[in-house]
Structure formats: structure tokens, C-alpha cells
Amino acid sequence: MGFSYHKSGMDCRRTCLHFAILLLLWNTTSAQIRYSIQEELKIGTTVGNIAKDLGIDRGTLADRNLRIVTGAKQDLFQVNGRDGALFVNQRIDREELCGKSIPCHVNLKAVIENPLEMHHVTVEIVDVNDHSPSFPDREYRLEVPESTMTGARFQIEGAHDPDTGVNELRLYKLSQNEYFRLEVENLSTESKIPFLILQKPLDREITSRFMMVLTAIDGGSPPKSGSLNVSVIVLDANDNGPVCGQQKYTVSIKENVSMGTFLLRVEAVDLDEGLNGEVEYSLRSKFRSKISELFELNNKTGEIKVKGHIDFEENDL
């Protein structure tokens, strides 16, 4: 048993045509050119000369229709068909094109006819230090209980710098103060997280608020920076007891004094704030029941008044 295969003339012509097209494409894609420019160059700035770099006679360019093919919506570059100069056609923002990616390349195709040639052109966009580090907000409020132990860490939301390489965010600095120091955790080359570290016990009654400035600095030359105002509010702990203005109060009254007569006012102060700083007064004595019959104490104001009948012979307190 045998097998035979027959190819028609049409099939042969189709195969030859495909081969010719592949051969043509192979011949036309004959070179690759690389240029490197900084972002934000002025429109019209020359990047390089395609004709010169490919060794094409400039005198023939007028008849060969030299052009750039990008496939992008925006034509960042154009070529002068008369002299072969590749130039900036629109504003180039490296961060908009590539974000944090390194390197940042724009790939073009230079097409020239008679005969047909196609060459790859790669333009590297180099970052310039056109951004300053910036924080999400201008101010940051941190509430810390005064009972917090030294060594406690408080994370601050870090700054962001769209620039890359040497121009990206490099370090943080904290304004000088004796209670907090700065630590920076490097999660990656692009992510640096600042922390405040408590290094001295807090006392709200001495200092209830701290104002500091956290500064983010990039590696540009000259460097650029951004600042964050940090406000640390020390929350009260009930660490103080009421203190009277004097240790002993003395008052003399006559017997048969009228009920409701004002005798004195006890004053005490608690350095804590809020509910922790509120003071209530009460009378304590081994004759408490008898005292309560004769005198009335306002537990809010500390005022003591006569409540009952005062008789020297009957009352020995």
C-alpha cells in the first residue's frame, strides 16, 4: 500500500508568496537604534539623527518618505523627513509613561521606502528630579496615653515620591525633641515607613502636647523635600489625687447660730483632666451621723453650712 501527495499550482504560488513576504520583512528589519534623553525636554528638541545613524544619504530622503510609526495614541516623537532628525513632539513625563518602572523605554519604528526598510528605534526616558516627596496630609494627629511605656512605636504614614533612582525618597528627619525619636523601616527600595519611638515617660500635667516636624528628603542634587506637622496629644491617666489648699481648716461659731449659716468652703484641686480631674467632697468623722445632723456639705462646691441646732452643752465633737 502506498500514499501519494499532490500540490496544485495555486498552492505552490501561495507558498512562494508567503516565503517572499517573510524574506521581505526579514530584509526590511535590518537595524536597531538606541537613544537616551531626559524627560520634560522642550518640544522640538532633537533626540538624534536617524538618517546619519543608519548611514542613509540625506540627499535621497525627499524621495524615500522617511516616517515614524508608533502605534500609540500620542506621537511623542516625530522625524524630519528632509534631514532625518528625530525630535520631541509632545511633553514627555516619565512618571506618566512608566510609573516606577526602570528603565523607561519608548519603542518606535522608522520606515523608509524605495527600497522599503524598517528599523527599530528605542528611546530611553531618563528621570529628572521634578517631584518633591509629599505626605497624604499636611498634619498628623497622634493621641498617646500618658501611661504608655517607653519604647512604644507609633507608625506614621510615609511620604510618596514619583521619581525613581537617585531622585527617589531617601531619608526622613524628625525635629529635635526629648520625648520621641525616629526609626525608619525599609520594606523595599521604594517603601520607607517612619515610626515614632517613645524614649521618655510622659506626664500630661507637665506637657500635654508635642509639636514636631517630620521631613522627607529625596536623593536629587539639589535634594527636594516635603514636611508633615506631627501633633502628639497626651491623654490623661488618673495618676493624681485631689490636694486641698490647706491641710487644716478652723472656724469658730456661736451656739444657737441660725441654720443655713455659711461656715467655710473647702477647696481641692486635681491636676488630672476630664472625669479624672473632677473633685467631690464628703465629711468623715467617728461621729458621722451626729455631724450630718448639724452640718451640711455641698459635695460639688465644698461649702459647709449649719444644718441643725448647735448647743455647746449638748454637742462635743
TrEMBL record:
Keywords: Calcium, Cell adhesion, Cell membrane, Glycoprotein, Membrane, Repeat, Signal, Transmembrane, Transmembrane helix. SUPFAM superfamilies: Cadherin-like. Residues 1-31 form the signal peptide. It is found in: Cell membrane. Residues 29-135, 136-244, 245-316 form the Cadherin domain. Transmembrane segments: none annotated. Its main location: membrane. GO terms for cellular component: plasma membrane. One of its GO terms (biological process) is homophilic cell adhesion via plasma membrane adhesion molecules. GO terms for molecular function: calcium ion binding. InterPro entries: Cadherin-like_dom, Cadherin-like_sf, Cadherin_CS, Cadherin_N, Protocadherin/Cadherin-CA. It is a single-pass type I membrane protein. This is Cadherin domain-containing protein. The lineage of its organism: Eukaryota, Metazoa, Chordata, Craniata, Vertebrata.
